[in-house]
Amino acid sequence: MSNQGAGPLRRAGGGDEQKPGHDSQAGNLAVVIMAAGKGTRFKSQRPKVLHEIGGRPLLAHVIAAACQVVAPSDIYVVVGHQAERVRAAVAETGVRFVEQAEQRGTGHAIQCARQAVAGYENILVLSGDAPLIRSETIARLWRFHRDQQAAMTLTTAEPSDPHGYGRVLRRAPQAPEVVAIVEQKMLAPEQLGLREVNMGLYALRTAPLFAHLGQLTADNPHGELYLTDMAAVLNDAGERVVAFKTEDAAELLGANTIAELVALDAFLRAAAADRLMAAGVTIYRPETSVIDAGVEVAADTVIEPFVQLRGRTRIGANCLIRSYTVIEDCTLGDGVLVRQGCVLAASTVAGGARIGPFAHLRPGSEIGEDAHVGNFVETKKARLGKGVKANHLTYLGDAEVGEGTNIGAGTITCNYDGVDKHTTRIGKGVFVGSDSTLVAPVTVEDGAYIGAGSCITKTVPAGALAVARGRQVTKEGWVAARRARRESKP
Ligand code: UD1
Ligand code: MG
User: What pLDDT shows up at residue 21?
Assistant: First the structure.
């Protein structure tokens, strides 16, 4: 069906393809995301839309889906409760904001956005608290709305339990036309059996919307202006209101309580684990893993129970990630072993390296090929070359360690003088004896040896041995002599 040419519903390029894509007719379509509500049922100080699932705020999920359909500058987020905090959390996406100082309902939220979006021919309205919405569904709604030449199109589904949602009253069971949306608390006894619910995702033509938006009344149990009432208002005004039914009721899941939020999080985590397993990754007890949507893992890597892979983590093939490890924003090469209980953040680990157990790679660590970072070793902004071994009880901060160097147990780089941070440079093939401290800035050149227990404050030249510790004093027979002295006292 085509409706090109004159008329209010110019088709925005692209034909009938199912993929979402930015609308080519600039100025034609805006997205309004309602995110001003307090989320009273959350009983939380944090605005509801900033609660996180899958590692990012609810609102960020909705914005990401909307960005697949229109440019960020055509997305208007309605903020109200703790507006500044909400703005700051998603400002980097480039969306625009509309203020709803007092939250008087979803209809009032759209009234507040009126000025900002009046220049667009159509708007899509999304809820900031329904994060599972897919861009494909938004794009399909948009196409349906145009094909139907409707003033208002609402997205509907039939979840197994419709309780709590607004129900959809169609003109006739199979007809696309909608007469009204009835909120749960307003349902008449004979309407309780209605199974089709309003997902809270709408397409609206702005001309009829704004011509009639003032007719909303707060004549309901909450005393709010309901956007859902626009279905009846527009229908009564002779405008076309239709329903676009989706098969995937899971997508409509909103988070109205913390328990629902956690259920959505579990849903996303399960989806992320399923995606990786389908790509050849073995995840034992996937229900215990926490994997963010953006994480990538190559085939034949094995992930043990209770592992968290967060942010933009990338893991190569044939790795083994053992239990109780948390990896965030890291890149691991192929064949890396991360033993139990490690914490890795914003670092890179090259192929064949072994980490842990109980190692802590802090941001800026670069662990070379086949290097070993063992028990209770902490690194920060430390570059370890190929084959470096730091196996026990060590701190390497602001350090460079050359290929093949061995760092003895208990070695510490003293990188902080109380004011500034300084670098420790350790060359290739160096042997640092156990329990040494390296007071930065300091350099240990290639092939040098450092005696155990040394406190190194000056450059150690290549191939030299440095011993910097008190000399041992041995007094033969001292213990017996002391005992004799004590016993002779009266
Ligand atoms: C809404 C619909 C309901 C639908 C359900 C789907 C109404 C009246 N009801 O109910 O038919 O089945 O979504 O999830 O719309 N918001 C504002 N300003 C306000 C009030 C709300 O921006 O003044 C925002 C909220 O932050 C939220 C969204 O609008 O992101 C939806 O509001 P909410 O109170 O959650 O509506 P529901 O009760 O879920
Ligand atoms: Mg809701």
Answer: 52
